[in-house]
Amino acid sequence: MVECARIVTEGVHMKKRMCIIGFGRMGKRCLRLFRDGFDIEVISRRDIENELREMGASQSRDAKESLSAADAVFLAVPVEAINLWVEQINQYAREDCLIIDCCTARLAAEKELSKIRRKRFGLPELGVGVTPVLGKPDELISEYLDGKGVRLQPASPEDYDRESTAAGIAHFIGMALDLHLGERERAELENSPAGFYLLQLIEHLKSNSPSTYKEI
Q1: What is the 3-state secondary structure (H, E, C) of 151-183?
Q2: How far apart are CA 211 and CA 205, in angstroms?
Q3: What is the mean pLDDT of residues 160-186?
Q4: Residue by residue, what is the 3-state secondary structure of 17-60?
């Protein structure tokens, strides 16, 4: 009976722990993708405890403790915030902790990500189907994602930035319009089907990836 209880207890603790830093669009995607295989804790400045509870996760009370307990850390912050977390990851994350990032501006991100002294790789896109992966992915993570229908395809930062140029141009156009359209122009656009669609497109681009929108 004691032996059976010990085995059951060990089974409970076999589920690995993931710490997600940031809870924007990509942070939420990460949670939905990995929650079946990981106990997930999220680091966020916002009070999202109730939302996380409904999604089967919890909010970190202490970033240092969360980093030190994690088997994997998913970095879902804008490029300009990466340097703020690199030092903490190097200081508090375990030596065998796996670091995953979702930065879309790869060449800019690599300047800071290269300072992380842990095994790491990037998943700039999260979704079913072929997904580019930057660096060498962890075998267990690869198997887990494969079971979710996510097939990883190796890519270099240069390749990814080159292939995502069209998306970058779309964000650039959206940003330019958003910055230079006055209230009068916006009001005029709202009165035509094409103009209203254009305004919706601008808002979609902004909400789709705020960090990329600012970086471009």
Answers
A1: EEEEECHHHHHHHCHHHHHHHHHHHHHHHHCCH
A2: 11
A3: 71
A4: EEEEECCCHHHHHHHHHHCCCEEEEEECCCCCHHHHHHCCCEEC
Verdict on whether the full-model pTM lies above 0.85: no
Q: Coil, strand or helix: which one is 133?
A: strand
Is 35 a residue whose pLDDT tops 60?
yes
88 Cβ contact list (under 8 Å, min separation 6): 63, 64, 67
Confidence of residue 145 (pLDDT cuts 50, 70, 90): very high
Residues of the chain with CATH 3.40.50.720: 2-156
- Which CATH number is 2-156's, of 3.40.50.970, 3.40.50.150, 3.40.1190.20, 3.40.50.720? 3.40.50.720
Between CA 66 and CA 75 the distance in angstroms is 13
pLDDT in tens, 93-131: 999 999 999 987 787 788 899 999 999 999 988 888 889
